Amino acid sequence: MTLKRVGILTGGGDCSGLNAVIRAVTRSAIIDQSAEVIGIESGFEGLVFGRSQVLSTRSTRDVLTLGGTILGTTNKGDPFAFKELVDGQIQTSDYSGRCVENARKLGLDCLFVVGGDGTLEIAHKLHKLGIPVIGIPKTIDNDLEGTDYTFGFQTAVEVACEAMDRLHTTGRSHQRVMILEVMGRDAGWIALESGIAGGAHIILIPEIPYHLEYVVRKIELRAKGGSPYSIIMVAEGARAAGGRQVIQQTATTRLQSKPQLGGIGQTLARQIKLQIDLEVRTTVLGHIQRGGSPCAFDRVLGTRLGAAAVAAAGLGKFGTMVALDTPEIVLVPLSKLAGRTRLVPVDHQLIHTAEAIGINLGREKM
Ligand code: F6P
Questions:
Q1: Residue 290 near ligand 1, beta carbon < 6 Å
Q2: Is 62 noted as a catalytic residue in this protein?
Q3: pLDDT, tens digit, for every residue of 27-56?
Q4: Ligand 1: which of 18, 138, 290, 341 to mutate, most ligand atoms within 8 Å of CB?
Q5: Domains defined for the chain, CATH in brackets
Q6: Distance of alpha carbon 125 from alpha carbon 113, whole angstroms
Q7: What value does the CA radius of gyration of the chain take, rounded to a whole number of Å?
């Protein structure tokens, strides 16, 4: 089909590589399809309130290496349950009709929605209301079904790995237990990959609730063996067996009711200190994993996904998400993703690899 005008928005939490995707979509739509490109600002909010800008080859110059998103994003703009403060009271409205109307007014032959599970679920609902949508998967958590990798993940792993390298030298010098808490929500992908890459002695992920006794035993064994320092990688969503995830705060603003994970690093440090006479220090990497320039892998993946999404739109393949099925980019129906999170399977090869080389995962195997 002929594409005259397409739109693109970025929704949910940002990650490195979003601008690489915006650039690839813009350029391939212009070069390959001779289409105009409209950038919708601040996720679905821009579609609800009609805020957009024309994107061009020129306006996407120099953004490949730029972190964040030039279009802005928000994770509180669900048009089906849009929350606003009206006279100091929280009001929830269904603005999905406005989205359909504004997409029609803009004359969009396709809307590219770049986002994680929540954003793509909304995209699917809007598609069912008649907006021709194609999804592009992003998140540092790498927890989306249907794709081998989401862009943003590898950059987060690189950042966490560098932090580990630095913790090793200071931890060794002071003979301390160093804990690094990384993001990932309910999935342990970042902790597992960067823990292995960064030479962690212990890796704790949400999918395997940890037993403190084995964590402590590993540290003691190392100390007895002449290495009185240990490096622990802990995912923010990890929890002790029989315990709960640690929540930093239950809502970040009055309009944002999603619980914010964080604090397991400090909790773990307190638990360890009660049992071992070694100094323990905790570092929380937080949003540093989401900011800054994307690594080469994410630049390439973002560019491939963006160009493939435009090609799919040209073929009229709406209601799908472009995905990496190594080495190919394939199309996955958005309906297959709804409500699913890709956690680390407990029998995943990375788990076996970690344990095979002696990394402790908070369970008996040493
Ligand atoms: O989903 C991406 C992510 O960075 C998670 O790893 C983390 O738990 C969450 O977003 C943090 O969200 P916020 O930006 O709202 O603090």
A1: yes
A2: no
A3: 999 999 999 999 999 999 999 999 999 999
A4: 290
A5: 5-151+294-326 (3.40.50.450), 156-290+345-356 (3.40.50.460)
A6: 12
A7: 22
